[in-house]
Amino acid sequence: YIKEVWGRPSFSFYIYYYLKGVIAVNTPFRQFKENHFLFIRILAFGMTLLCGFINATIFLRFDFGGTHQTGNLSKIALSVLSLDFHACISLLAIVLSFFFGSFIAGFINHEDFFVLKISFGFILLICGLGLWILEVLLHDSQYLNYYCAFFAGLQNGFLTHNRLKLRASHVSGCFTDAGVYFGRLCRNHKEYLVKFILNVVNIIIFFLGVLLGGYLFLHVREHVYMILSLLYVGLCIYYFVISFLFFHKPIDLEVT
Which of 37, 58, 194, 249 has the highest local Cβ count within 10 Å? Predict the structure, then answer.
């Protein structure tokens, strides 16, 4: 249908079809907007950095990790052998907190299609601000460690999607994947190069997160969780922006 003015197409008609043609062609803006995996990688690297930050503060404050359950499970077994049931219960609570965080992520993102849901963004924002609130209310309390383990599990569970195959806090998995991909590269399977680089970068970013968290904890300990909460606010703003871009368009491709 063409609306005409004095027998000729209106000015708005030309504008509409001009813009439609601009959007339809492969413009740089469209390439930028449709490059889903670039945005998701940045989001994943941001979560990895902040998980490294969290892990550093837990290690320096409580002398054991809240994001690495292999070591915690080993300590549980050793505490049972030494009859140290207090330590056993504390470590078991950390493992279950991490598991519960992953459960929440799987409950929200249950589809085969990867979707950037607004609900997860709000949960990420609330949990990030909760770090600061709990630091004020529960300063140096063991419950803060449980909360950090839950939060790390939440982020790791969000990225451990059958389409994404990324990790936020499971560095052992990144080393495993990087080693496997490097072995395949050595057998001339060049299609694994990007996956290998992605895992190596993820390991480096986690390491930088630990350095950042450790440095801030040692120098501005009373403000470390406030800084971490503000970083999560920035990450959530980024999450909401890319959710707005891709919310109505589920992503059904593997991140390579």
Answer: 58
